[in-house]
Amino acid sequence: MTQYCHARSLIGAIALLSLFVTHQSQAQEITFVGSTSCTECHQQQNKQWQGSHHQQAMQHASEQSVLGRFDGQVLNYADTPYRFYRNGADFVIDADNPKGNVAPFKVRFTFGVYPLQQYLVEFAGGRLQALPIAWDARPQSQGGQRWFHLYPDEAIRYDDELHWTGANQNWNFMCADCHSTGLDKNYDLASDSFDTQWAEISVGCEACHGQGSDHQQWAKKPESARAQDPSKGLPVRFDQQTTNRWIINPGSNTATRTPASKDSHTTEVERCASCHSRRLAQAPDQAGTPLENSLSLSLLETRLYHNDGQIKDEVFEHGSFIQSKMYHEGVSCSDCHNSHSLELRAPGAEVCSQCHRSDYFTSPEHSHHRSTTADNSASGSATTKTAIKTTSKTTAARQPDCLDCHMPSTNYMVVDPRRDHSLRVPRPDLTVSQGTPNACQSCHADRSDNWAASNVQQWLGRNASGFQTYATALEAGRKGALDAEAQLLRLLASQQPAIARASALQLLTPVFRWQNTAPLLTSLNDSDAIVRKAAIGVVEALPVQQRIDLMLPLLSDPVRSVRMEAARLLASLPQTALPANAVTVRNQALDEFIQAQLFNAERPESHLNLGNLYRDQGKIKTAEQSYRQAIALNRRFSPAWANLADLYRAKGLEQQSIELLQQGLAEVPEDPTLLVAQGFSLIRQQRQSQALQAFAKAVEYAPDNSRYHYIYGIALSSTPQQQSRAIKQFEKARELFPANSDALTALLDAALRGQDYPKAHRYATELQQLTPWNQQLDQLLKQLNARKG
């Protein structure tokens, strides 16, 4: 299925820009030759590829490629009439321009083909922008053959960050690399313009197999010479379908892979993931290299995934699939999908029967649902006793198939259903305890979650478990539970999927209380790069010497994203603090880090990252220039205002800092980060009442931020008349994030000063759970226990 850009879901991920640019030596030696060069020898594959979503991922606008009706229709959205019509041979859309005025825009390219098609128009500076109105390509009987807005429930106007003319709907950055082959973005910062080029407009052969010039030469060699080159001149080969087989052994219901090696599939899976993943590209794509050499994979973040890892936002399959048991048993994308046509290898759930015995897995014994073909009149049969009583009015009159239960779908971009590739068992018990979705509700929408959980309990004699068992730990980390650290550490020590363990590390940072680094050392030596990289974020909280000791080996990590993150962590240290042989290695990795940011130089986040790096290195003037460049690219990008203001504060230039914060707040007046920074500035100016106003606004605009409530509470507590209000802020901070030890300490101090010893005992007990090594806390608890006795 064609991958469509979904800008709203991608904005948060963009802020993670941080890693990589590849060396270009290999790319200079081999070149793209185009899919037409492959046709003569690979006719069957070419025939399958023709008409596929890959082949039609992007096309020049023409009578053949444009599916939408440009016949004068008008769609009204947010007080803007969008009109679709022809002007001679051109396809034209009247839409709102960057100033909010309606203007005509000529369609240059089509984008995608089914179930929707978008359209690209060209702006100055080589920018292609994706229009917000798409054509519903589904049949009319399914609600299709119409124009619709991609954000129907929002009123996105010209000054919104998601307006179609802005950076977050820019094809060159957001979409181009996955909808074409051999892309060269060619952004020039000095002129703020693109000269984007591609080797092939669509997703062709070389998008997956890599540049074909060497393979072309290999094919012309004598057979004896060809036999001496097992790579066949290709940067990457996909041999698993010819070297591996799936066999259902006697007495088993599920196939196992032969040969036994389960990692032979990772080449193909990672190659597909270069586009079919929620990720940030940080270098030109290079086939045959590790995934994290050129991009940064998004982890199981709250905005993207539910606590149990089910899809929430659009994540493009890979982050889900690597959670699955099937992936860990050696299943690859092409086991289920034809790599060239992209169709399933068998219709619907029949694709599952390739490896799972259909006579067992379609029976009520497995599904616990009555089969429409089975004789359900024998009420005493074992299958009938375990089959669910389908009294729900919304239940389909058929037995659910594998996909219904194990791959439920979610609609994105209004009409595009995506199946969850984590292939998990339904867990209605987690719906009851955590609010995660469950597949049962897809059919039984009129029944309660407790009803579904109760049925599963009756079938199994217990709650379902399945392969993925990290929901409770991730929930604890996300909510900052008192036992979050303990739960996350247990997850780290488990054999759960790498993306779950990396996510645990990401969540561990704010509750980091370790007194030894043994669990961290294990993660830093993990076989998966995303785990090693995530562990580096936790190391940042350690003392300098420990950071040095732990990071030195990773400066030479074989995966670039890991070694660059390690170098960034050591960037602030002078050369004298490092072993002589480590200085050069660190500096080389830092150069790669810098090039990674420049690869996305059109984004303010890149210049923010550069500014932070130069600030850490003491290059203040260069840091200032980077922050100002970020602001120039997007004046509403508040982190750049805040960091530049803080840079001036650190230099003792308080007045310049004040002015910068005022300028930033004029652009984004409701930004809590800038309001908090302004509050601190006002305190330094001894303007207490105005500082309190700034903190109060920050809390109002970010009511779920525990840290902001704590800061506001501290500011209030400096005024004797405001003590009760301060305590309320500390309580709110603790409610939002129970593991907020600062808020707990403040509450304990307030309780002791107010001689409320029962509360003091409760707060001290919770603090002890967070800091069990705190001997002063132990003494206090003894005193409180004695008073209580």
Structure description:
The protein has 789 residues and is α+β, with helices and mostly antiparallel strands. β2 and β3 form a beta hairpin. The longest helix is centred in the C-terminal third of the chain and has 20 residues. The protein is globular and about 85 Å long. 42% of the residues are buried. The protein is built from 39 helices and 17 strands. α32 runs antiparallel to α33. It is 43% helix and 10% strand. Strands 1, 2, 3, 4, 5, 6, 7, 8 and 9 form a 9-stranded antiparallel sheet that branches.
Question: What is the compact description of this entry?
Answer:
The chain is an alpha+beta fold.
Topology at a glance:
Elements (H helix, E strand, L loop, with lengths): L6 H8 L10 H5 L13 H7 L8 E3 L12 E5 L2 E8 L2 E7 L5 E10 L4 E8 L3 E4 L2 E4 L9 E4 L21 H4 L1 H4 L7 E2 L4 E2 L10 H5 L3 H7 L3 H5 L12 H4 L1 E3 L8 E3 L7 H8 L5 E3 L13 E3 L20 H4 L3 H4 L4 H4 L21 H4 L2 H4 L14 H5 L15 H5 L2 E4 L3 E4 L8 H7 L5 H4 L5 H12 L10 H9 L4 H9 L5 H11 L9 H7 L4 H11 L4 H8 L8 H10 L10 H20 L4 H13 L3 H14 L4 H13 L3 H14 L4 H13 L3 H14 L4 H12 L5 H14 L4 H13 L3 H14 L4 H14 L1
Antiparallel strand pairs: 1-5, 2-3, 3-4, 4-5, 5-6, 6-7, 6-8, 8-9, 10-11, 12-13, 14-15, 16-17
Helix pairs in contact: 18-20, 21-22, 21-23, 22-23, 23-25, 25-27, 27-28, 28-29, 29-30, 29-31, 30-31, 31-32, 32-33, 33-34, 34-35, 35-36, 36-37, 37-38, 38-39
